[in-house]
């Protein structure tokens, strides 16, 4: 369970030390309408171009775009690309850059030529020396990094195999970080995970993971099995395998495996999506999130990143919109009756592999106790459905004079809460039929109930769901509020 706003608020007080391969990303956009008469190659009529901080620098940009501070250490050459990167990083108020200059190598630069109409990459040109930094440069990097470790809440190594993260640099950073009690996340490039030994979390993509573990890594089960040996080799606490449109799988040393499906989005550009994932994992874990929360946040951020052109950053507002999409619907769009409309929503959510939660009540006068239960319920699932007793069933349950507000008013107040994705009004005294139809993964009620008292608990548990009881806030009761308003005793 997590509260997005509370987590976002905590993120802004975190500092991430990011070390890795810095590069200049350039995108040249244009239209292709003919083949060159000089050779069988398409001709791109350039319309515009843009330059971004790329590689590990894009990780730093994403950390800053989410509101956290970033201390960034990277490597540049004595050239125009290096000068551009230094200038662009200096303009980032939340990024403190410490750049080591290596006159013997060019700054890594990638130029991508993109068809504007088809949004496809036609060609990429690279300027780079993909070799480990020389011993003297390596020592300069170590001397630049180690004094910064004490200031960081978490450390992130972004390895693009361009030479900044040599085996010696990696070893010095991880060993010193561990002595200081700092967690280390690694976005690895080497197929030898042993060089990252002692890191907290490794985040390879499926191809990198398959090569490193010599496994097919084509199912959740095969990833979970191969990850155990890999984690033992790397002496890490967890392994996150990103799988593009197939989502992400997180495996911990304790044997826990969590898979989240990818959000359905129109993919415009995958450049830098891995950077976004690493950045979100770093800031959320630093802010105190558990593994599953960090995973879900990173998965949502990846969906935002790939829906943008170029090397993209993700803001907290964009992430919030992706995680709480129904918070931005008009209240009336969230209110439905049981039947075909509900079936269609459920079918769509299940296709996406989303975890569906359910809670219910009369919610006659919404109070802080209700809000706490609803917020906790939403934190335990991807989509929350609230079953609302109709006016007739509320009267039968609560007696004459109730409800105070009619069902439409109560539904609109509930639907206005961003924690609520759907409100379904039901006529029966209990939501047993609704629960049977929905088959939620999690059934939530206030802690003033026992598990056995929760209507539908046996149905939910029969198909592998769970019952979650949330501690209630003392002193809040709709009945007592109504009595006080009518001049009676609470």
UniProtKB/TrEMBL annotation:
Pfam families linked: CTP_transf_like, PfkB
Keyword Translocase: no
InterPro entries per the UniProt record, alphabetical: Bifunc_HldE (IPR023030), Carboh/pur_kinase_PfkB_CS (IPR002173), Cyt_trans-like (IPR004821), PfkB_dom (IPR011611), RfaE_dom_I (IPR011913), RfaE_dom_II (IPR011914), Ribokinase-like (IPR029056), Rossmann-like_a/b/a_fold (IPR014729)
Residue span of region Ribokinase: 1-329
Binding site for ATP: 205-208
All residue ranges annotated as the Cytidyltransferase-like domain in the record: 358-464
GO CC field: cytosol
BP terms from Gene Ontology: ADP-L-glycero-beta-D-manno-heptose biosynthetic process; lipopolysaccharide core region biosynthetic process
Residue ranges occupied by any Carbohydrate kinase PfkB domain in the UniProt entry: 15-313
EC class of the enzyme, as a word: transferase
MF GO annotations: ATP binding; heptose 7-phosphate kinase activity; heptose-1-phosphate adenylyltransferase activity; phosphotransferase activity, alcohol group as acceptor
Catalytic activity: D-glycero-beta-D-manno-heptose 7-phosphate + ATP = D-glycero-beta-D-manno-heptose 1,7-bisphosphate + ADP + H(+); D-glycero-beta-D-manno-heptose 1-phosphate + ATP + H(+) = ADP-D-glycero-beta-D-manno-heptose + diphosphate
Region called Cytidylyltransferase, residue ranges: 358-490
Pathway in which this enzyme or protein is active: Bacterial outer membrane biogenesis; LPS core biosynthesis; Nucleotide-sugar biosynthesis; ADP-L-glycero-beta-D-manno-heptose biosynthesis; ADP-L-glycero-beta-D-manno-heptose from D-glycero-beta-D-manno-heptose 7-phosphate: step 1/4; Nucleotide-sugar biosynthesis; ADP-L-glycero-beta-D-manno-heptose biosynthesis; ADP-L-glycero-beta-D-manno-heptose from D-glycero-beta-D-manno-heptose 7-phosphate: step 3/4
Catalytic-site annotation from UniProt: 275
Listed EC numbers: 2.7.1.167, 2.7.7.70
UniProt family annotation: In the C-terminal section; belongs to the cytidylyltransferase family.
Subunit structure: Homodimer.
Identification of the protein by name: Bifunctional protein HldE
